[in-house]
Amino acid sequence: MIPKIAVIGEGVIGCTSALQIAKAIPNSRITVLHDKPFEKSCSAGPAGLFRIDYEENTEYGRASFAWFSHLYRTTKGTETGVKLVSGHIQSDNLESLKQQQRAYGDIVYNFRFLDDRERLDMFPEPSKHCIHYTAYASEGNKYVPYLKNLLLEQKVEFKQEEVTSLDTVADGGYDIIVNCAGLYGGKLAGDDDTCYPIRGVILEVDAPWHKHFNYRDFTTFTIPKEHSVVIGSTKQDNRWDLEITDEDRNDILSRYIKLHPGMREPKIVKEWSALRPGRKHVRIEAQKRMASGSGKEYTVVHHYGHGSNGFTLGWGTAIEVTKLVKKALGL
């Protein structure tokens, strides 16, 4: 029997899940279902700097870091979007930086706290504390298409269609459904109302001389991409609007220029907004279900709720999802 598997979502979580399943179960028939072009997805814009928000996700991040390291060693960054970048995160809140150290300090390279001389030399209005580290960044507009190309080589099919019911997908002949619907994962699951939008806005500017990431706390930052530098951001819980306003632009630029005056009057080359999939914990769970109309039995594996850490955690969480898929198939 050749198992038929549907993966809902073409973003970084959906493509990562599909790729790991395809590698683990090479005789499976996998279809990725998505409701809109990738360019309009939440995964198309991020610079993808490796950073973990919560210590409970450390091991997922560790697995992802190993994957990025492999890509960096073996494949051109112009293809994968993966590069090595160093930088700093400042904060007056020492505990928040110690939490970062606990979450990923032993995963990234060169993690350390700056001394007073370094802080005062580099930053015009330094925060009281600052960490430095080196890690991988994976540009969404390159990394996810790279994953998609690997999937196409594995004969995975992509279909653009809106999915409103897991039962309907199951009635299409699928034995396993992997729910990677991001912000809408809970609604699609039908048993989870804990997902919420985190509105994010970033500006891409022309600043080829800027080579390091630079953060104040976790909402004011720059991250270099291949052809631009990302300035961000907003992190506004429970806001659904996507239009970028002058208020957004002025807020982001004024905060960052105070941190780094050398970036004043930047040439904005692109703007991007999206709704990140907020949830207290990433959901990784398998459920056996029966389609209400046909009575068909199937398994759904939920894989959503990564917040701002989809690129950092996705490979690691997909490993766990693949284990659940194999178990459901008796493999």
TrEMBL record:
GO biological process, one term: D-amino acid catabolic process
Cofactor(s) demanded: FAD
Binding site for FAD: A47, G48, L49, V163
A Pfam family this chain is assigned to: DAO
Residues involved in D-dopa binding: R276
Cited InterPro entries: D-amino_acid_oxidase_CS, DAO, FAD-dep_OxRdtase
Keywords associated with the record: FAD, Flavoprotein, Oxidoreductase
UniProt entry tagged with the keyword Oxidoreductase: yes
Gene Ontology cellular component list: cytoplasm
GO terms for MF: D-amino-acid oxidase activity; FAD binding
Homology family: Belongs to the DAMOX/DASOX family.
Name of this chain's protein: CRE-DDO-2 protein
Taxonomic lineage: Eukaryota, Metazoa, Ecdysozoa, Nematoda, Chromadorea
